[in-house]
Design a protein that fits this description.
The complex is a heterodimer of chains A (115) and B (109).
Chain A (H helix, E strand, L loop, with lengths): L4 E3 L2 E4 L5 E6 L6 E7 L5 E8 L2 E4 L8 E4 L6 E5 L8 E8 L9 E2 L3 E5 L1
Parallel strand pairs in A: 2-11
Antiparallel strand pairs in A: 1-3, 3-8, 4-5, 4-9, 5-6, 7-8, 9-10, 9-11
Chain B lengths: L2 E3 L4 E5 L4 E3 L2 E3 L6 E6 L6 E5 L10 E2 L10 E3 L8 E9 L4 E4 L3 E6 L1
Parallel strand pairs in B: 2-11
Antiparallel strand pairs in B: 1-4, 3-8, 5-6, 5-9, 7-8, 9-10, 9-11
Classes of the chains: A mainly beta (115), B mainly beta (109).
């Protein structure tokens, strides 16, 4: 089992461009979570998805950010019209069940730099 | 508000010394707490969960509801314990893990 795979590892975008971050969960895991880590801060929850459904998006900024986890393929975190403040490390995690019952398995993260 | 506080950004101890990484939480219900660890150049991984009441790599953590704390302890620090440690609380009706800001543990020889 290759673990949670995130790509790309590093992504550079100019202000105004779109960023697409991909996450393939561990085999057998149907729960996916996205977290953001800003410099000098901890991991901030963004969104929790199950296949084809957004369960909890209370941590997602109201504009420009969206996430999906289609029936087939990886989960995608999409940031439109990026700004410098979006520069951060974005981590994906997966689990076979809810976090209270199952440990989260994390990917290596995608480091987004907005120039 | 549901919150996890790790007051120390950096904790430096000598090899063989006791370690205590502090974690306090704010939660109105019955808390479910975890410690995650990130070693250098590795991904974040689960260290232990309070419900299991287990010792992993010599670390233990006891939930103290009176003090709303879940401190991570180890009697004798080893060099390989140097890592970033995050305390986490299940919140949002069980839908998410809320993390503290983390404590960098540095074990010196």
């Amino acid at each position: 089992n290759a673990g949670v795979m995130q790509n790309p590892r590093h992504l550079v975008r100019r202000r105004g461009q779109e960023a697409r971050l991909r996450c393939s969960p561990m085999k057998g895991h149907s729960h996916v979570y996205w977290y953001r880590q800003l410099p000098e801060e901890g991991l901030k929850f963004m969104v929790y998805l199950q296949k084809e459904n957004i369960i909890d998006e209370s941590g997602m900024p109201k504009e420009r950010f969206s996430a999906e986890f289609p029936k087939e393929g990886p989960s995608i975190l999409r940031i439109q019209q990026v700004v410098r403040g979006d520069s951060a490390a974005y981590f994906c995690a997966s689990s076979p069940g809810q976090p209270g019952n199952s440990p989260l398995h994390f990917g290596n993260g995608t480091r987004l730099t907005v120039t | 508000a549901q919150r996890v506080t790790q007051p120390e950004k950096l904790l430096s101890v000598f090899k063989g010394a006791p370690v205590e990484l502090k974690c306090n939480y704010s939660y109105s219900g019955s808390p479910e707490l975890f410690w995650y660890v990130q070693y250098s150049r590795q991904r974040l991984q689960l260290l232990l969960r309070h419900i299991s009441r287990e010792s992993i790599k010599g670390f233990t953590a006891d939930l103290n509801k009176g003090e709303t704390s879940f401190h991570l302890k180890k009697p004798f620090a080893q060099e390989e314990d140097s890592a970033m440690y995050y305390c986490a609380l299940v919140t949002g009706g069980g839908n998410k893990l809320t993390f503290g800001t983390g404590t960098q543990l540095k074990v010196e020889l």
